[in-house]
Amino acid sequence: MNDPTDPSLRALFRAAADHGSREATTLPVARVVERGRRARRRRVALATVTAGVVAVLGVATAASLAPGPAGPALPATSPSVPEPGPSPSARPGPLPQETQDATPPAADSATTDGGRTRPPATSGRTTPPTAPPATATTMATTTPPRG
Prior knowledge:
mainly alpha
């Protein structure tokens, strides 16, 4: 079985192992150190890219979850004005019906049945109502800066 002319597989592997051990040499230390540094640079670069991707995705997620712009800031009023609601035409429901009565409403009445509306009759007052007194907030916002 140890015959050098034996073509068995075991003999071929032994011949290859003997040849490999005769030709094998150790790598110089500088080459081993260079490979280690190259591997370390690759790991650091991969960690840096991963951290950057995580940061960008975090900022994008935070930006998508943040509320949108509120619009221009409105001046302070006293008393506060309620938010405008949906217009009457935007509300769902039946459309206003034409009135069966073709007579126009009286001059001093206001209608809400889809016809023309008129303000109620005034009580003879000819001057407009007085404006509310100015507050410190409105005075501060309307006074021009001194300079």
